[in-house]
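User: what does the whole thing look like in 3D?
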Amino acid sequence: MVEEARYLYSIAKTGQKEHLGEIGIEKKAVYTVPCEDIAAVVHSCEPKPYDTKDKTQAEEWIFEHSYVIDQATKRFGSVLPFSFDVILPGDDSQIEGWLGRNYKLLLGELKGVEGKAEYTIQIYYDYDDLQSKALFGNPELKDMQSQMETESKGKAYLLSKKLNQRLKELVSSEEGRLANKYLPRIHGQVDKLIIDGKRSWIPEDCRDMKLLASYSCLVREENVERLGEILDEINSQDGFRVRFTGPWAPFSFVKLGELA
Amino acid sequence: MKPERESSLVEVLDRLLDRGAVLNADLIISVAGVPLIGLSLRAMLASMETMLEYGVMEAWDKSSREWYARQETKLLLDGDETILFKAFGYLWQEEGIIGAWVPGVWNITSRRVLLWQRSPGKVVFERPLPDLYVQRANASSPEREELELIFPEGSAKIRLSERLEFEEALAGRQRSMVAVEV
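Assistant: Here's the predicted 3D structure for the full assembly of 442 residues, as structure tokens:
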């Protein structure tokens, strides 16, 4: 059984052992463990995960983790952020060895995010408008509606399920068409783009609207302004609303699946 | 427009729990086969569905199945009720903004369909067999084997690896029930 472990916040581009202060989860002292010109940003902990049933406590930890990543980014430039509660067994020398074994991969990933940050773009659209257009402009759906009236209760129920499904499909294909109209323009200003899955969470000011598209983008510092201008154009159209958040550490763009 | 750096909890959670680098399960310390990555915490705060898309969580999925298998509670059946089909699976449950796949064992008995959690030993979902339809759901990802159970009060999204067997067992039982009633 290992006796100590290190909580991993991020990998940063520095060759120095540095102390970032007692800014970690539960005020733990955060420091770097370097290996050549890269370093792991860690705190020393017991070999067990942070776990609680207290929601407030959990949220506090999450914000503390996030804060350390922001501080490391300010100090060292773009970092490779780790997910919450990633803990490696061993002491500093074992962490250094682990960095050494993965040096090439980590350095490559760090170079890939240098001078860039992650931004989220969400485009919202008036859903009711889209749905009524889909329903009234489609003869197939109208047929299904009239067929329902003559069927038995059970079959009519299944048919109504099918109708709703078909309506959903139509609306989503229309959504796709609208989203794809803007995608190439956004694409022109970003280095990498991930289409995020639809999320159930919608911010307060967009409650009456439907999420049309959600992207996570890796953007060079010098392109952020131009990207903002394009989003402005979309945002100013009737029935549209755009959310543009960031800069975030490149959470969606670190691929460390090959770590040894 | 200028990007806003909102410190809204949801935005931060989304990144810290569902994104960011994770490590292979065999690198992370574990206790009795359960990888140490704050599992109940994630379950509480984030969507289980997203997590299962990561390799690490697959490992957890496996170890949680094993853990469930070790628990010794017993499903209580009514008098002459018998179990016709049993398979590990999930039920989709939504609570406010958080949705999660709730794991358990799907049982088709001579009377009902139910999702049983051996630990803590409770029936999470149950519906009588007559008036129950099953259809393939439009799965959020094609490799997932999602089904929709439709009953008079509504419907439920479920998932299990032995989908075909489940459908057959359900249809078979319903046919025999109709035959008895006639």
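In plain terms: Confidence is low (pLDDT under 50) at residues 25-40, 46-72 of chain B. Chain B touches chain A through 51 residues (CB under 8 Å).
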